[in-house]
Specification:
Layout (H helix, E strand, L loop, with lengths): L1 H18 L2 H6 L2 H18 L3 E13 L3 E12 L2 H21 L7 E13 L6 E15 L5 H11 L3 E8 L3 H26 L4 E17 L4 E3 L7 E3 L3 E13 L1
Antiparallel strand pairs: 1-9, 2-4, 2-5, 3-4, 6-9, 7-8
Helix pairs in contact: 4-5
Length: about 250
Amino acid sequence: MKSKLFKTIPCLLLTLLLACPAALAADAPADYNALLGKALTALDELTAARGQLTVTGNATLVAAPDRASVTLGVQLQGPVLEDVQASVNTAMAAVIVALENSGIARDLITTNDYSVSPVYDYSGDTPKATGYQVSNNVAVRVQDFNRIGAVIDAATAAGANQVYGISFDTSSRQKLYNDALWNAIADARAKALVMAEATGRQLGDLRTVEERAGMDVTPRAYSAMAMDAVAGTQILGGSLQITAQVVAVFDLK
């Protein structure tokens, strides 16, 4: 009963205020006029049509890479498994020493693949095992992008015969993503303003915002690697695109 009463009193008060003749307002005290103004404002807010608007905001920033990662390895074949493994182990040890001498810390060198597989001769009617192939590959993170070519040259000179999987990154990744996230939210608000105005409505408060896509760092241009006996390995990193996306929900009024 109390709940219904408390809900009814404001409505009765509003009805009485609106029912007062305009002539009384001239002689009414200031607090009455203020109360009447608040009542009319509350009535406008209660009777205004409401709704919500959902928009997607996007932003992309471009940056130059300043670090890289490359996979280097040794792959050998031979008739005796133990001999092939020993040769691969010796060669890989030399490669790791060469990498460290090139300024790569040991904790930036990680084994990402080691495999042993038989080698077959398919020239006859029946495949015949002729030996074994052993591969040992390491992922190397190069903190100084300008050193990537020299690192590859040092590794191949030491015995690495597998080079692949070059990727690029930036040390400012998190800051750039935060900036892209900020811009994505601003993009969502700008779109919402246009859509609200186009439909004859006013944009209200931001209700929710959701990060739709995580950090995306992708090459803007494909990398290139050229082998030159004099100049050494040349690596062209191009640029990176860092993108962010959000979904925002706004009130309409």
